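Suppose a colleague, Dr. K., hands you the sequence of a protein chain of 155 amino acids and asks what its three-dimensional shape might be. Before reaching for any lab equipment, you can write down a predicted structure in token form. Begin with the sequence itself:
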Amino acid sequence: MDRTIATVIRRMKLDDLNTVLDIDRLSFPLPWSERTYRYELLENRSSHMYVVEVVEDQIPKIVGYVGFWFIVDEAHISTLAVHPDYRGQGIGELLLRTALNGANDLDARIVTLEVRTSNDAAIRLYEKFDFKVVGSRPRYYRDNNEDALLMTRIN
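The predicted structure, expressed as tokens, is then:
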């Protein structure tokens, strides 16, 4: 059953960390630590972090997040995840579009990311937004030595 969901995109705040960490643990074999997120939010001036909230019964609930780093003229998407209960509803697209719009606002010429070779859903999403595979990073992921695809999009 399809349902229409009201969404709000906003900058990530420290108060969001517990929920973001929960989604991270549900989404990745090697989730980021709280310390890493705190660094991204408080110290890394290149970092841009966003959350998406859905509003159900007038109560906002964080269901996904995206982050990217902007350095010189390049944006690198560092993380993107959607809570498993909300996947397949366009929230990943909304988050990716948010990062791409942010990169565009900063005049990024290129946007890059890495993705597991086995993550077909993410690869399809990135290809939908004109990312192309430009290389690989052998044994990039420490949990199982899986390769990463390096994907790039000219902005």
